[in-house]
Amino acid sequence: MTTATEISNRIIEAVMAQKLAPGSRLGEQQLAMLFDCSRTIVREALTRLATRGIVTVSARRGWYVIEPSQDEAREAFEARRVIELGLLHQLKSVDKAAVRQLKAHLQREKAALAGSDVGARSFLLGDFHVCLAECLGNSLLADTLRDFTARTTLIAMLYQSSHDAAQSCEDHVRIVEALEAGDIARAEALMSEHIGTVQSALRLQASSDPLAGLRDALAPVRKSPAPPAKATTAPKARPRKSTASSASAKDTPTDPSPYLGALL
After folding, report:
1. Partner of 165 at 20 to 30 A CA spacing, among 206, 216, 238, 260?
2. What pTM, to 2 d.p., does this model score?
3. Tell me, what's the pLDDT at 160?
4. Of the candidates 86, 202, 98, 66, the residue with the CA atom closest to the CA atom of residue 140
5. Quick check: 46 and 2 in contact, CB under 8 A?
6. What residue ranges define each of the domains in the chain, with the CATH number in brackets?
């Protein structure tokens, strides 16, 4: 029978492969049928993932994949920067076995880029950071990075990242080259640049304003400027009528901006 750990690992892998989008519903009964296990085991797996910040539960909607807010997106990248730069900063050297393992991972990345399996490509690019922590001998940070990498994958999907996969792979290659040369400071600088580049490719607003959409929609409608008066034949201006029909006819806006009636 499938265990809760196996189910949670499969869900994490699906997220990192961009096969589960933010907001995807995870029905207990459907998962129990898929993995041929009880709903109790499924619920245990989902509870673990909720603790790790990958899924959440609602009384009405049930279990679903998280949809990170903009603030949560920034926090996730800040956390990754602290973890990964700290991991490299404390290094003295990297042994040859670790370098070989990292190079093998890079070969799989390049093969995935050359192929058509987008899921494998996405997974391997994210898993590089997990592999790096494992190769450097810190399994605890590897587990933590796996969760943060899954979350940043969801963030990239939700905020339509324009980051190029080939550029990510090239960044990874340069980081490994620096580690192989024993230049830990350069590897750290390259990692910082890489994480910053990935974050800057997200379509995040500079400042979060929950009323931005409504504020724009309900802004005063611009009136069209009056046409310039003719110099010779223009008649004297008549006193403005106060009837509603006259006001309506003259003040009808030509600007296509939305108004409340259209929104409702």
Report:
1. 206
2. 0.73
3. 80
4. 86
5. no
6. 4-65 (1.10.10.10), 70-200 (1.20.120.530)
